[in-house]
Amino acid sequence: MKKECVAMLLAGGQGSRLYVLTAHVAKPAIPFGGKFRLIDFPLSNCANSGIDTVGVLTQYQPHELNAYIGSGQPWDLDRLDGGVHILPPYIKGKEGTWYKGSANAVYQNMAFIEEYSPEYVLVLGGDHIYKMDYAKMLEQHKKTQAGCTIPVIEVSQDEATRMGIMTVDENDVIVDFEEKPAHPKSTLASMGIYVFTWEKLKKYLIEDEANPKSKNDFGANIMTSMLKGGEKMAAYRFSGYWRDVGTIESLWEANMDMLSGEKIDLSSPAWRIYAKTPTSPPHYIGDNATVSHSLVTEGCEVYGGVFNSVLFNDVTVEQGAYVEYSIVMPGAVIERGAMVKYAIIAENAVIKSGAKVGAPPEVFTKNPDEWGVAVVASGVTIGPGKVVGAREMTDDDLL
After folding, report:
1. What was the pLDDT predicted at 154?
2. 314 close to 329: Cβ distance less than 8 angstroms
3. Cα 13 to chain center, whole Å?
4. Strand partners, 388
5. What's the CA gap between 122 and 118, in Å, rounded?
6. Is the pTM of this model over 0.90?
């Protein structure tokens, strides 16, 4: 069945810079914002943009992510004529390898794309927080008759050294691309999203696979090859909220952004972010509890103090416990008298009575580089009176 555009969602990365948070789960399955997971954003953008055929390329620790996506029903992608498809690496005859890079992952699934004979292919990351109408970008791609269109966003000069940077002419045609340049020529950063004319992309994927020196990466290899090949590549300027949550600090900051209600509005009915949410009772706030400027999701029981924090479903904060500027993921328990400040507490972790996790940055005014977000991994117990300091991470019980 022919489709004008097929989306390929890259969801197989290890997310190593999230350390203990991705030890047992794929990065796109990381909980975000109280009731979402990272992959909800590109899937919802596809659904809202009218793109109803999505291949999700999984590899690292895929079980939880695969179970979460299921049939695609929460995103209206449970369809017979398209829908969402999980695409892990597989053996073909006597050959088969893990995905060697983002370009190789799409190359290995060219047969899936060809089933729908698309004119265009949308390549997405599974770990960015943003709202975007892909249909508008596709419309610009068609009008400019580009071989590839890349959304870009203005960043600071310092941020530009950590990202893929585009240089464009007066018509926003890309004339140069640099990956993490020490001295950026511009501040237009790639958002890691691409629209390709399929026949063009197919040609370059085949050539890239035949090159034994290639890293098989879209940014480092496919973009460079298309520029050298004289293909027209256009920038699509995006001005909304976008954040790559590839580090502990950026994940924590993006959750804190949710509390502002100004940087990204997830309550707007005009462009909803859909999610597979658990069936939990309404949250309960106890008589002596204090909750201020926080997101508290279904199933939570709060008897202590919660300030400037994000609580996912089924979290318990006991009386006398204190949570501040923190992210507490599903099923975690903060026991009586425990203190959690500037921290990420992963799923089903337990912070026992009197334990302390994290510390505010003002404690480190003399040595600010020593401060950072504290992290307790999934299922870990921090024993009574134990301390996990600022910037520390633990993936073992501390008893």
Report:
1. 93
2. no
3. 11
4. 357
5. 10
6. yes
Question: What are the CA-CA distances from residue 262 to residues 15, 31, 154, 337 (Å)?
Answer: 28, 21, 18, 33
> SS in 3 state form for 199-237?
HHHHHHHHHHHCCCCCCCCHHHHHHHHHHHCCCCEEEEE
Give the pLDDT means over successive 10-residue stretches in the chain (399 positions). Answer: 94 76 88 94 96 91 86 90 86 65 91 96 93 97 96 90 90 90 91 95 95 88 92 95 90 92 79 90 95 96 98 97 98 98 98 97 87 96 97 95
**The token pair that represents 326 in the structure block:** 């923190």
The Cα-based distances of 198 to 68, 75, 99, 322 in angstroms read 29, 25, 20, 53
From CA 167, how far away is CA 179, in angstroms rounded? 12
The two tokens of residue 185 are 């020529």
Closest listed residue to residue 202, CA positions, set 292, 293, 106, 123: 106
Residue matched to tokens 């695969």: 66
State which H helix or E strand residue 255 sits in. helix 248-260
Cα–Cα distance measured from residue 282 to residue 251, given in angstroms and rounded to the nearest whole number: 26
* Predicted pLDDT of residue 361: 93
| 3-class secondary structure, 104 | helix
The C-alpha atoms of residue 110 and residue 114 are separated, in whole angstroms, by 6
Long-range contacts of 392-399 (CB under 8 A, 24+ apart): 393/19, 393/20, 393/248, 394/20, 395/20, 395/23
| CB of 278 closer than 8 Å to CB of 295 | no
Query: Which tokens go with 123?
Result: 């390549």
Quick check: helix, strand or coil at residue 364? helix
Q: Amino acid identity, residue 329?
A: M
Three-class SS string for 170-202? CCCEEEEEEECCCCCCCCEEECCCEEEEHHHHH
